[in-house]
Design brief:
With 512 residues, the protein is an alpha+beta fold. It has helices at 3-27, 38-48, 63-71, 85-97, 111-122, 129-152, 174-184, 190-194, 199-213, 218-223, 226-251, 276-279, 319-332, 336-339, 405-412, 421-428, 468-477, and strands at residues 162-163, 260-265, 270-275, 283-292, 301-311, 315-316, 342-346, 352-356, 367-370, 379-380, 394-396, 400-402, 434-447, 451-454, 458-461. Among the domains are: 1-31; 38-149, no CATH class; 257-448 and 482-486, L,D-transpeptidase catalytic domain-like.
Length: 512
């Protein structure tokens, strides 16, 4: 009787074995080989581009640089197995903890998480490969993120309609920079080495520290009324934010060559003409300007190359102005065009255009500075001088009016053979249109920052006339790693083509 169950036992175990083998084979596709060394664990983490110790576990956009760094070390740990591991890790965490000194947020770099994990990591056994690899790579990714944000910025400027020229290549080899800092024991100095090499940036960093130190202390608050204390705190808080946003925007700027340059800070209503070679990066000329109306025709943020100067220019009336402003007046007054020294010209392509002849009534005044750009804006003179006396000067259709354009012309043409101050004044005394091609183009930047150092190293704060500060603050609340492809253009940006004089809004046609 007992033989029958016993006979079935081999058959039962055989079926059980085959069933579990089949299940194992079914799930073997999802299984990953368990790494047996810390280097294999590090490689596994880099391949997945995920690290759960980080506030933002996915580091896909920093993975290339992180992998390049570990590759130089044969994928061995950079921090946890070093003879200087305790000091090196301490230096990195101190650097990240002080990110606020650069206008950055330490929380973006998982500082608290790493500090909490460090005592546990120090107790791990050498064979705890997975835990050690996680911590080592978390430190590396956090440091790489901080340095990348500090040098390039945290937001793609083009996503905010800041049409700045992008860098054409990586300006820093971050893996090599970190590797060198480890070998030279200079991790604590990395922030100063990586930050933008711009005098205004260094000035703003110092100002940020000073404003933070100037927050109301308990002893001060006792001497202040509740209302004045609150007002002072809000004022300091707003200025700190403006400084931090200014530092972020300066990170977006590519490195420029030495020489002449022209910068218009839109909310400051100021133009600065700079010659690095002569003035050690100090403004040599500061002029008041009128910029575009905030509600309707704001002046665009852009970078371009000034190539031409026009004396006694024609004004080719833009179609939008023709429709909205001139045609209604022409309907009520058939002689309006002749009264404004305007004429209708026929173009070679069969089209027609209204333009204003050179003279005292010309909307562009006597000088026009041309730097071809997609928005079709330029710098120019104006017959309406009274607007320069107002503190807020956003009245134009988008182009920038210059208060003393003759001084700007002297700056632009000072390296142009034959164009002395006397010749410039002589050319302006006639009504003859004249265009000069610059021997060397001059970079022009239409910028926007509500905190900046003016001449005499004086920090000035401005109103956010276009609302760009609020927009940038909103973008920074959604912070994440920005891919290099959004910050670095692999090919040089193409300049707008120069169209024929009949078709281009940037050039004046010859009189018919």
């Amino acid at each position: 009787m007992l033989l029958r169950p016993i006979l079935f036992l081999p058959l039962f175990f055989t079926c059980f074995l085959f069933e579990h083998v089949a299940v194992a084979e079914e799930f073997s596709f999802f299984a990953t080989p368990f790494p047996s060394t810390i280097s294999q664990e590090i490689s596994h983490i880099l391949n997945t581009k995920q690290n759960q110790l980080l506030v933002r576990a996915n580091f896909e956009y920093r993975a290339e640089d992180v992998d390049a760094l570990y590759k130089t070390n044969n994928y061995a740990p950079l921090w946890v197995e070093s003879s200087q591991s305790e000091k090196n890790i301490s230096d990195v965490l101190a650097l990240l903890s002080n990110a606020a000194a650069q206008g950055l947020d330490p929380n973006d770099y998982s500082v608290s998480s790493l500090q909490q994990k460090l005592p546990l990591v120090q107790l791990l056994k050498p064979e705890s490969f997975m835990e050690l690899a996680l911590f080592d790579t978390a430190v590396t990714v956090s440091l790489m993120r901080f340095l990348h944000d500090l040098h390039y910025g945290r937001v793609n400027p083009h996503s905010l309609n800041f049409n700045l020229k992008l860098r054409t290549h990586k300006t820093l080899d971050l893996p090599q920079v970190i590797k060198t800092a480890i070998s030279e024991d200079s991790i604590s100095q990395l922030a100063l080495k990586i930050e933008p090499n711009l005098k205004p940036y260094r000035q703003l960093r110092s100002a940020l520290a000073a404003y933070r130190e100037s927050f109301i202390t308990p002893s001060q608050s006792e001497a202040l009324s509740k209302k004045s204390k609150s007002k002072k705190a809000i004022n300091y808080s707003e200025r700190i934010i403006k400084i931090e946003l200014a530092m972020e925007r300066l990170r977006w700027l590519p490195e420029t060559a030495a020489g002449q340059s022209i910068i218009v800070n839109i909310p400051a209503f100021q133009l600065s003409a700079i010659d690095v070679a002569e003035q050690d990066n100090s403004p040599v000329l500061n002029l008041n300007v009128v910029v575009g109306k905030s509600a309707k025709t704001p002046t665009p943020i852009l970078m371009a190359e000034m190539r031409y100067v026009e004396f006694m220019p024609y004004w080719n009336v833009p179609l939008s102005i023709l429709k909205k402003e001139i045609l209604p007046k022409l309907i009520n007054n058939p002689d309006y065009l002749s009264g404004q020294n305007m004429e209708i010209v026929t173009l070679k392509n069969g089209g027609m255009r209204v333009r204003q002849r050179p003279g005292g009534k010309n909307a562009l005044g006597r000088i026009k500075f041309i730097f071809p750009n997609a928005e079709g804006v330029y710098l120019h003179d104006t017959p309406s001088k009274s607007l320069f006396q107002r503190p807020r000067r956003d009245f134009s259709h988008g182009c920038v009016r210059v208060q003393n354009p003759t001084e700007l012309a002297q700056f632009v043409l000072k390296n142009q053979e034959g164009w002395t101050q006397e010749r410039i004044e002589s050319t302006l005394s006639s009504n003859t249109h004249h265009q000069i091609s610059l021997k060397t183009s001059i970079p022009v930047l239409f910028f926007y920052t509500t905190a900046f150092y003016e001449q005499g190293d004086k920090l000035v704060f401005y109103s956010d006339i276009y609302g760009h500060d609020a927009t940038l603050l909103g973008a920074l609340t959604k912070i994440g790693d920005v891919p290099d492809s959004a910050l670095i253009r692999s090919e040089p940006e193409m300049m707008p083509s120069v169209l024929s004089t009949e078709d281009s809004p940037l050039f004046s046609e010859q009189s018919p």
